[in-house]
Design goal:
binds xanthosine-5'-monophosphate, alpha/beta, binds magnesium ion, Rossmann fold, 3-stranded antiparallel beta sheet, 29% strand
């Protein structure tokens, strides 16, 4: 699997430092609240489980799964709700945890859903932000890294459901795609 990677963008150490920085800031900002931390599956799973370890506050977690990619490297534009939350979000302070914001469509869909369900506040923490990819307006409150407009894999992010278990974020060799 490591042989498929052309270059490492963010090493394990880079990611650990970003998690510490964001977790510490989040703990400070939410010290007087009990936020509901929502992990957007599947990509944000590693990031969420790491960042919450640096948050010494009371918090709850839940999971939601939406899909806009259907396996390739380009967004299709249609968002499908694959797995809903277990928690009632009415009146709650929500921290959405995302792996990457690209077109912004996923984030807009989720924010609209949470607003419709009467969340008290909604903030967004993303490991990576790709501002050059925006199609709809969407903004994260907490960002680990601003990434160039490349398709990235690892640390939760996939290409055709693989590479999520890489401990770093990298870019695939071109031949990995052209083989398909
Ligand atoms: P949008 O376009 O809705 O995208 O902002 C958000 C979701 O799309 C996926 N995504 C990626 N997945 N490498 C990936 O493995 C990428 O470079 C990439 N860019 C977007 C991701 O699931 C994200 O939550
Ligand atoms: Mg995702």
């Amino acid at each position: 699997m490591n042989n498929d990677i052309e270059k490492v963008l963010y090493s394990e150490e880079d990611i650990a430092a970003a998690c510490k920085r964001l977790g510490t800031q989040l703990a400070e900002d939410y010290h007087d609240k009990t936020p509901l931390i929502i992990c957007v599956l599947k990509g944000a799973i590693l990031f969420m489980t790491d960042v919450i370890r640096d948050m010494d506050i009371y918090a709850e977690i839940d999971f939601i799964d939406v899909s806009s990619y259907h396996g390739g490297t380009a967004s299709t534009g249609t968002i499908t709700l694959l797995k809903d939350l277990d928690t009632d979000v009415a009146g709650r302070d929500i921290l959405l945890v995302e792996d990457i914001i690209d077109t912004g469509r996923t984030l807009k869909y989720l924010e609209d859903l949470l607003r419709d369900r009467k969340a008290n506040s909604i903030k967004v923490c993303t490991l990576m932000d790709k501002p050059s990819g925006r199609v709809v307006e969407a903004k994260a409150d907490y960002v680990g890294f601003n990434v160039p407009s490349e398709f990235v894999v690892g640390y939760g992010l996939d290409y055709e459901e693989k590479y999520r278990n890489l401990p770093y974020v990298g870019v695939l060799k071109p031949e990995v795609y052209s083989d398909k």
